[in-house]
Fold:
Amino acid sequence: MPLIKLNATLGLTGTLPAVSGANLTGVSAGKILQVVHGITTTEVSHLSNGSQVDTGLTATITPSATSSKILVLISQSNKVERGSAVLLNYELRLLRDSTTIEYWDSVCAEEVQNGGSKYGSNHAYHYQDTPSSTSSLVYKTTGRIVSNGGGRTVIFQDASAPSTITLMEIEG
Structure:
């Protein structure tokens, strides 16, 4: 295989190896087999009562092989209101069907401490799932305010701000 050399003053020298599709001489890269996209702009408000609330963000994919991986990309918009509380802390969960497969805790804990009482943001998350299935799979997010009391509220898709979820089946 040809060599590529990096010369700090001249840049790259040499020749690149031949590339065929997504394969590099004996190395197989995972191919993207399908992409599914979901979006919601429906506002969902949640008060600090400790329960999970469905954010309305969902997408469904049917893997073509049990060896496939599903890359989940999430962009979740929200606005938090801490009311009279000093701190607001909420978590976001990713579910496959009815099972929590990942959660992110303390999503907004630092952003609203001792500052303004309202804070809007859009958080990005990613997760690689290995479902070992060829059945239809539903991925969705739920949220929950971890801290109780003080009039804490989280509003997903506030003022119709979009939240998106992209599912990519990667060849296993």
